[in-house]
Amino acid sequence: MKITAARVIVCSPGRNFVTLKIETDQGLYGVGDATLNGREFSVVSYLNDHLIPCLIGRDARQIEDIWQYFYRGAYWRRGPVGMTALAAIDMALWDIKAKAAGMPLYQLLGGRSRDKVLVYGHANGKDIAETVDAVAHYRDLGYQAIRAQSGVPGLASTYGVSKDTLFYEPADADLPTESLWSTSKYLNHVPKLFAELRQQFGDEVHLLHDVHHRLTPIEAARLGKELEPFKLFWLEDAVPAELQEGFRLIRQHTTTPLAVGEVFSSIHDCQHLISEQLIDYIRTTIVHAGGVTHLRRIAALAELYHVKTGFHGATDLSPVTMGTALHFDTWVPNFGIQEYMRHTAQTDEVFPHDYQFKQGFLYCGETPGHGVDINEKLAAQYPYQRAYLPVNRLEDGTLFNW
Ligand code: EZ4
Ligand code: CO
């Protein structure tokens, strides 16, 4: 089965998405996501200028060989741009293989391990009262796991707090907006938020929180410790994770479960975090960490060390990634949870898919392949719109982590 064509499609049905479509001489095609939020065209160029010329004419069935060819063959390994481009090819090839087999992707991976996929949604508010209302709203929608973020008194804006409750999109301007950060104000506020949420909602609901890379290990240790009474499902991205051994310090001080990895691009970014049992959930996702082929290796390593999956699933992960991730989640033995931020109706229309949300769970479909397509005609009506993620400064002007 020869690859005859590969096309990169850029569209913006409410937000930017980069999509790869691979065609074969058997009439079967596959679709992959290549979206890297705020840096979209770096991946477009990597695919168009460097990978696609080497892809045409190859046997679409040889997923592993093609993966190795582009990983080892680049000489320059890893990194978000290269691994996202590779992931797009990998996703499209798994889509083709599953279509050729006449099976939904989870069957090819090893079959169903569970009936449904537990997901968490994002409840945001400008203060504690608004966040309480947002959590109540998600409870009404059937969610059993909810991430809670609140504005911090004395800070004009912070990560995770949006204008819209269901469709938070941080890449919100054609040049980066700037927000201000104070670690002390934040640390004083967050335990109050979770005390109130437990008071209001009891122990049944799973509560999660995303620090978004803003603490040092000792600050994260303090926060984890102070949040212990409120039994979080996880504390996410407590510190920027280039320093894997930094997690040892957090781990020595708290039993709050730790999740990390949405910005990782390979198994080497989390090897020590996993093998030294410094984390509880690994958040690498299909599109940013080399596709199904590479995620399988990360999940298998994690399984050895009692680490569960908790894939990134924000709105910048296109429905193509979401669909593929749901097949992976349906199969993977050490599944933990899946993040699920809803896409807008426009996005859902451009990417027809067969997965469904019901009462706090997502269900992947039974269509052969990963179950997500792109309507190219409709996509063409939504041209690219430049959009950046914000940057973040301390109150004295120092550039900080966003
Ligand atoms: O900021 O996907 O857990 N989710 C997140 C996201 C990320 C965006 C960045 O593009 O941290 O909201
Ligand atoms: Co996050």
Using brief descriptors, characterize the structure shown.
single chain; 402 residues; alpha/beta; TIM Barrel; three-stranded antiparallel β-sheet; 16 strands; 19% strand; binds cobalt (II) ion
Write the layout of secondary structure elements.
Elements (H helix, E strand, L loop, with lengths): L2 E9 L5 E8 L4 E5 L6 H16 L7 H10 L7 H22 L3 H5 L7 E9 L2 H13 L4 E6 L27 E4 L1 H19 L4 E5 L6 H11 L6 E3 L9 H8 L4 E3 L10 H5 L5 E2 L8 H14 L3 E4 L7 H13 L3 E5 L5 H6 L5 E3 L2 E3 L12 H4 L11 E4 L4 E2 L2
Parallel strand pairs: 4-5, 4-12, 5-7, 6-15, 7-8, 8-9, 9-10, 10-11, 11-12
Antiparallel strand pairs: 1-2, 2-3, 4-14, 13-14, 15-16
Helix pairs in contact: 1-3, 2-3, 3-10, 5-6, 6-7, 7-8
The structure holds (2S,3R,4R)-2,3,4,5-tetrahydroxy-N-oxo-pentanamide and cobalt (II) ion.
Summarize the structure.
This protein has 402 residues and is of the alpha/beta class. It has 13 helices and 16 strands. The protein folds into two domains: 101 residues, 2-Layer Sandwich (Enolase-like, domain 1), CATH 3.30.390; 266 residues, Alpha-Beta Barrel (TIM Barrel), CATH 3.20.20.120.
Structural commentary:
The chain is an alpha/beta fold. It folds into 2 domains: 101 residues, Enolase-like, domain 1 (2-Layer Sandwich), CATH 3.30.390.10; 266 residues, Enolase-like C-terminal domain (TIM Barrel, Alpha-Beta Barrel), CATH 3.20.20. Helix content is 36%, strand content 19%. It is built from 13 helices and 16 strands. An 8-stranded parallel barrel has the order 4-5-7-8-9-10-11-12, surrounded by 4 helices. It has a 3-stranded antiparallel sheet with strand order 1-2-3. α2 runs antiparallel to α3, α3 packs across α10 and α5 crosses α6. The protein starts with a strand and ends with a strand. (2S,3R,4R)-2,3,4,5-tetrahydroxy-N-oxo-pentanamide binds next to loops.
